[in-house]
Automatic annotation (TrEMBL):
Entry protein name: DUF5776 domain-containing protein
Disordered as annotated region, ranges: 258-288
Keyword Signal: yes
UniProt feature, compositional bias: Polar residues: 274-284
Alphabetic keyword roster: Signal
Record Pfam families: DUF5776
Coiled-coil region(s): none
Low complexity: bias regions: 258-268
Keyword set includes Signal: yes
Organism, scientific name: Lentilactobacillus kisonensis DSM 19906 = JCM 15041
Length: 449
């Protein structure tokens, strides 16, 4: 007798089908069959004798193979023994990788060999798009999957949390099944939640721990200094061992402290000697019209240093910012102005380069436009064209405050600009379709590139 085996591997999920050349068995009642099904998970075992009539005209209940605390995507192994009633033998292998969400199908020739040789390449690759939204494990237990070499046998009569309805038509597809063993084993999985600002930087990360197949809703909490671009819970699904979930946030405007200064009233004593006195007044340093506005963001186009005060000396250096690529240029929020003893204008700034060692530092940098310029464009490009620079791409939003995302543009995408709108101390480009994108020079560049 020649034996054959069909084996399905789904990442850690495996189905092995053993084909034995023997006649179909039946109960004493020739119109019914019994399929013993054993289910196990760690130290939990469950047995079911599934009795069905392949010739019944009315529908029948299938089998609920679920175990408390486990789902269909926790199934790690299934062994199916088949009767074919002939000496033909087949050995098929189906590999489904959760990370790639696809099934590779191999066929081994076995008619004249007890040790069949595996083919070098898959005979068929079932892509994720063919799974119709199902996970690989869900696909194996659906009507879409068929053990084609054994009369189209399938496992659609097995449910998880319910008993599928077995009709006369699909009952004919399981008559050759002799026995089934199902083994559960949870596969640990993690979803990393990245809070991403409008510059494409991750400003905070959290993690969700679970198992492959888990799904739920995550309630994001905006990091300090930010607000959520979109309110509400976010759906997540752990389809692989490692997963990512992006939550978009928008930086809150930098507020400048306001208040009034009370000047005490002083009554001077009369100058009986009538010696003239002189008085001096102080005020904020005069600022040219092209200087960055308080609260706005600038970035360094060349290498610069941050200093403790407005008089720049080597001893006063707090941090060094080397010249770097446009998308990585260091950014600062201008909080005040100062002048050196020689009268040179300086910006008092706060480092807002999230994730860097210098983030949060406060000090003074040059105000020269040869070294620092506004991060946000202030005019519409002459060609009215933009190119996306960010490796993470940029989102287009329905509103000028960058809420309600409507589309994502990948790096290199070319956009048509309608106009430039100001929002607080930043600017946005309105596209030809009416949506808004950031005007941040680190994320987009004028023209086609």
């Amino acid at each position: 007798m020649i034996k054959g085996v069909t084996r399905l591997l789904i990442g850690s999920f495996a189905i092995m089908i053993v084909v034995l050349g023997m006649s179909m068995r039946a109960n004493a009642d020739s119109n019914s069959q019994t399929i013993p099904i054993s289910i196990s998970a760690n130290n939990v075992n469950k047995s079911i004798d599934f009795v069905f009539n392949p010739n019944a005209k009315n529908s029948q209940d299938g089998v609920d193979a679920s175990l408390p605390g486990y789902s269909i995507n926790d199934v790690s192994k299934v062994l199916v023994t088949l009767n074919t009633g002939s000496n033909d033998a087949w050995y098929n292998e189906f590999n489904a990788l959760p990370e790639a969400n696809e099934v590779d199908t191999y066929v081994w020739g076995t008619e004249n060999s007890d040790k069949p040789q595996k083919s070098e390449k898959p005979d068929q690759i079932i892509q994720g798009s063919q799974l119709n939204g199902m996970t690989p494990a869900e696909y194996i237990f659906s009507s879409s999957f068929s053990m084609g070499n054994v009369y189209g046998s399938n496992l659609q009569f097995i449910g998880f949390g319910s008993k599928p309805t077995l009709t006369t038509d699909n009952a004919s597809k399981i008559w050759a099944i002799d026995s089934i063993k199902i083994q559960y084993a949870k596969v640990p999985a993690t979803t990393t939640v990245d809070y991403v600002d409008e510059n494409g930087h991750t400003v905070k990360s959290n993690s969700i721990n679970g198992s492959i197949g888990d799904a739920g809703k995550y309630t994001p909490v905006a990091p300090s200094g930010y607000r959520l671009a979109k309110q509400g819970q976010v759906d997540y699904q752990m389809a692989a061992k490692t997963n990512t979930l992006a939550v978009h946030v928008v930086a809150l405007p930098v507020s400048t402290p306001t208040g009034s200064i009370t000047t005490p009233t002083v009554t001077p004593k009369p100058n009986t000697d009538w010696h003239p006195t002189s008085s001096t007044t102080t005020s904020e340093p005069a600022v040219p019209n092209d200087a960055a506005v308080k609260g706005s963001v600038v970035y360094a186009t060349k290498g610069i240093y941050m200093y403790k005060n407005a008089d720049f000396t080597n001893a006063q250096r707090l941090a060094k910012y080397p010249k770097t690529k446009r998308v990585n240029r260091p950014m600062f929020v201008v909080t005040d102005y100062a002048r050196s003893k020689a009268g040179v204008l300086r910006y008092k700034v706060r480092d807002v380069n999230h994730g860097s060692k210098t983030a949060g530092k406060v000090g003074y940098i040059t105000a020269s436009q040869k070294f620092v310029v506004p991060v946000y464009y202030q005019t519409v490009p002459k060609t009215k064209k933009l190119t996306v620079l960010s490796r993470q791409g940029v989102n287009a939003y329905r509103n000028v405050n960058l809420t309600k995302p409507v589309k994502h543009f990948k790096k290199g995408a070319r956009l048509m600009v309608k106009k430039l709108d100001k929002h607080n101390l930043t600017t946005r480009y309105q596209l030809s379709n009416g949506s808004y994108v950031t005007a941040n020079k680190k994320l987009v560049i004028e023209g086609n590139h």
